[in-house]
Write a structure and sequence with these properties.
The protein is of the alpha+beta class and 113 residues long. It has 2 helices and 10 strands. The strands form 3 sheets. Strands 1-2-6-5 form a 4-stranded antiparallel sheet, with helices on one face.
């Protein structure tokens, strides 16, 4: 059975940050640049977690077995009882880049992708 190469080390939702731990056997840094293995791990994380393609603090040379990513910044537009939230379309399995959330008078919520 193969061992996990990366995992979620910690999340800071208030700062929109997710820290990914990487197996020490995988060399992800060469100086301050990502290695080919590091690029593969980063691509896998992006595809699995729907994080942004690039985050300025992606690597920290003082922590060579961590990658930092940012979840997409959510844009919220409120109009009356309708709230539109921008989230990744891949999470909706839809081609649209937003979802409409409507709160009904009885307290229930309708989500329209």
């Amino acid at each position: 059975m193969s061992q996990r190469v990366w995992w979620i080390e910690r999340e800071f939702l208030d700062r929109n940050l997710v820290v990914i731990g990487v197996q020490p056997s995988v060399k992800i840094l060469d100086g301050t640049q990502l290695t080919d293995a590091g690029l593969k791990v980063a691509a896998d994380v992006r595809n699995s977690l729907f994080v942004e393609d690039y985050f300025g603090g992606l690597v920290d040379p003082d922590r060579p077995h961590e990658l930092h990513f940012q979840y997409p910044t959510q844009k919220i537009i409120i109009s009356g009882s309708v709230v539109r939230v921008a989230i990744p379309a891949g999470m909706l399995k839809s081609r649209r880049d937003y979802v409409t959330i409507k709160k009904n008078e009885d307290g229930t919520i309708l989500i329209v992708p």
